[in-house]
Amino acid sequence: MRRRPDRPVRPPRTRTGPRHHRASPRPRHRFRIVVPLAVLAFVVSVLLTEGYTTRTFSGDQEGRTGQPATGLPREVTGGGPVVDTTRDRPSTYRVPDRTVVLSFDDGPDPVWTPRIRAVLDRHGTPGTFFVTGQQAVRHPGILRDVIRSGHEIGVHTFSHRDLSTQSASDVDRELALTQLALAGAAGINSSLLRMPYSSTTAALDRADWSVARHLGGKGYILAFIDQDTKDWQRPGARAIAEAATPSAPGRGAVVLMHDAGGDRSQTAAALDDLIPRLQAQGYRFTTLADVLGTDSLTSPVDTATLWKGRVFVAAVTVSGTAMSVIGVLLLVVGSLVLGRCALLLLLARHHARRRPRHAPGPPVTRPVSVVVPAHNESLCIAKTLRSLAAGDHPVEIVVVDDGSDDGTADIAESLGLQAVTVVRQPNGGKASALNTGVRRASHDLVVMLDADTVFAPSTVRRLVQPFADPAVGATAGNAKVGNRRGLLGRWQHIEYVMGFNLDRRMYDLLRCLPTVPGAVGAFRVTALRDAGTMSGDTLAEDTDITMALHRAGWEIRYAEDALAWTEVPASLRQLWIQRYRWSYGTMQAAWKHRHALVERGHAGHFGRLGLPLLTVFQILTPLLAPLIDLLTVYGLVFGNPLTTMLAWTGVLAVQTVCAAYAFRLDGESLRPLWALPLQQIVYRQLMYLVLVQACLTAVNGYRLPWQRLKRSGDVVLPPPLTARER
């Protein structure tokens, strides 16, 4: 004996009835628009901040060693490694004999800078750290530790760009951001700078010299090198220590090493060998400020600059944290998308091969009642009724005119079709019209379809065959797009075949089909009564009744060969209205039937399998899927464009395989799939926005009114495919 479901539990503040419900005040409407825009603005700002502050530089850390250009001052190209261009006449400085300046580029690094600093501190040796702004804002604590240990800080630009290839404004921007990073991270500015990719003064060319003069005008002292250890090549600790040793015994040198950009364990080990050995030979270690005869090349910043820098560092910290969260979410959504595709393909293949076409037992041949709810459907009703009258299964047709004012009922009556009964009632909404039709039905099986839908001659017969099994309470047919001309129609055609019908095959096998579509479905009247009949509690009455049937213990089947062609929206505005209603109504229905999660029997099976699948694949995954597109744009701008495009193309290829298989299962031509890439770029974004707005509507408790779609009446049955097209 089947139990009746519990009394329907209405979700708080989300109940929606027919047209007479009034909308909420306009401030809530603004809230639903402002929130997604604010979220989008936040994510975009995070991506921009993270992209610019973490974009890796190209090339190796090795300095350029091209031939010097003519016309450069001899005192520079033949002078010492420290160059002062702040005055009209440039001057250079050499490191005194038996003196070594150990310099480290590209930090601070959270792993290697502390290890190198520890070696220097252990030996009481100062170092000069040329830091990038990118690293300073991401690791301010490491920079402060270096300063507290008494080491010298220099500027190495913000993003390690080759300044000789940049415009003057770009150079100024690099330096300003770096100084802002130093101010926020440590409260200092530095007038000491090393240009990325520079080496000795002898290797300067005309472009370098032009930049050097510009930097001098900004007040920077430039640091070049005497000894390049090439430690980034990781030649071994001994080789690095040898390369750091002054080439001429007793001579002073500025030595180049690195504390970031890769594994610097060999550099740390080389210092442990180099420092004691040179100290034993009478060398001392110092800073570039000491070489210039000044106390320091850094200075504290004023209060305003300090707070600007702190805000900058905080913004980068927030963006870094947000990007970590986004990265996890991307991993989740990527797994869900690929897992969903794999699951759909696997179960659809199993469904096509092993699911019996008809239920066991004799075929269902008894007459069926067909209920057609209609409100102002004058453009469609004639075509719909003629398709039903041309069917190969005995039917009675009950047209319920729900308060139409365009002559819909008169047109239905004027057709003169046998077995057509027209029932007129005041406008009460779709659920009310369906219930009226069921009450007027003469048979125990009722087929329901929208008034803009056309059936194939065999649709009713195939739709009712699963009722040979007495446990079946409803069957879902295969709804297709009947007005697929135009790009928007093709996109929806792909969506119907690829998404809706593949999903139904999966749910059918798992015995948890969540929706019998309003365009083509059949019900056992006793099952409808057990489930409480059609309800106006939600905007998705088809999903609501299907879930109620599961909770009442009835099985739901999918008849993939019961074909119906329905009219889909022909404009973006109409599409938005329809999908907004679908999304919001589905959430309402899922909330209303949430208690199935803890129920027993078939209701519990649906609650613990169907509801989570619905939530994950129809709400959670689409909400997170925009991350794929946003991070694709991020990768094109800030990452490797080729790798990014390959990854995006790979996802598209997976989608194409799913679509092609779905089209093959449904006997559809593959020609419309040329529009799939455009669908992923344009159409999918629209569906994201619709779902986001629907979620905000649900959270905000807005009472969404019913909005009827405009009809065109241009639904047509496509011609049969040729063998070549298949």
TrEMBL record:
Residues 98-286 form the NodB homology domain. Residues 1-27, 56-91 are annotated as: Disordered. Keywords: Glycosyltransferase, Membrane, Transferase, Transmembrane, Transmembrane helix. InterPro entries: Glyco_hydro/deAcase_b/a-brl, NODB_dom, Nucleotide-diphossugar_trans. It holds the Pfam family Polysacc_deac_1. The chain crosses the membrane at residues 325-348, 609-634. It comes from the Bacteria. Belongs to the glycosyltransferase 2 family. PANTHER family: POLY-BETA-1,6-N-ACETYL-D-GLUCOSAMINE SYNTHASE. This is Bifunctional polysaccharide deacetylase/glycosyltransferase family 2 protein. It comes from Streptomyces marokkonensis. The lineage of its organism: Bacteria, Bacillati, Actinomycetota, Actinomycetes, Kitasatosporales.
